[in-house]
What we know:
By secondary structure, the protein is mainly α. It has helices spanning 4-18, 21-45, 60-88, 90-112, 116-130, 133-144, 152-158, 160-178, 181-190, 192-202, 215-224, 239-243, 246-275, 281-311, 317-320. Helix 2 packs parallel to helix 8, helix 4 (90-112) runs antiparallel to helix 6 and helix 6 (133-144) runs antiparallel to helix 7. It starts with a helix and ends with a helix.
Amino acid sequence: xxxxxxxxxxxxxxxxxxxxxxxxxxxxxxxxxxxxxxxxxxxxxxxxxxxxxxxxxxxxxxxxxxxxxxxxxxxxxxxxxxxxxxxxxxxxxxxxxxxxxxxxxxxxxxxxxxxxxxxxxxxxxxxxxxxxxxxxxxxxxxxxxxxxxxxxxxxxxxxxxxxxxxxxxxxxxxxxxxxxxxxxxxxxxxxxxxxxxxxxxxxxxxxxxxxxxxxxxxxxxxxxxxxxxxxxxxxxxxxxxxxxxxxxxxxxxxxxxxxxxxxxxxxxxxxxxxxxxxxxxxxxxxxxxxxxxxxxxxxxxxxxxxxxxxxxxxxxxxxxx
Length: 321
């Protein structure tokens, strides 16, 4: 029987992945939206019979607002997501976030044909929910990842974001080229609902409450995790110590640099390939997925190397990092 912590790792990785389907597919899908609008306008200009081209003018500025709207919302809830996860529990918080992300993804084709403010607002709401994914997962990882496997399980879970970028790029390119860009968002908006059932039935916030865990594994996690079963209150969180910590600020600046590079690549690379190199969308999607394939491979290998250094070689965690 598969250990309960590995089942948690698998479903948490998939949960992280499906929550980003709408965001990642839009970076490719918006090219098809703009191209369809341009062809429609060209048909109207040539006095040919054409359907309504919609009310949105897909300028570079409007595209930037739509693509950036997710991050407008995400940056707000990332801050409060940690305390919220500790108070409510990561399981049900991630469940609610997934339902919101599914709804926002399904609404993209509807709003893209009718309302730019509505589409931007939808993406901001999507970002508000998306900002809670990492805090919810971190809360649960602290209880499910033993010290002897520190870094390995968390890396697999967080690599779900790269898996999403690879899958959605290839899927969006193929479906858009072969069928219709609207179908992409309808499918990717419904797929996360398949994840909800096993997550709800098989996963618990705390290993002690799991019905699938063995006595040996429960004893391992009790010995090798140092979290409390009690949920902290807001006033119990040492905000002054956190904000005055040099290590915390070092991690913040490192994440800013990493996020900057990631967002720059994910949002602008498909546009460069489409507008400058004039690649068709199905070829564009293949090339756009390559940086994330590299991220997946390096991340997984680095986690194994980190575990080997700390467990076999006896290197301290700080030095290994």
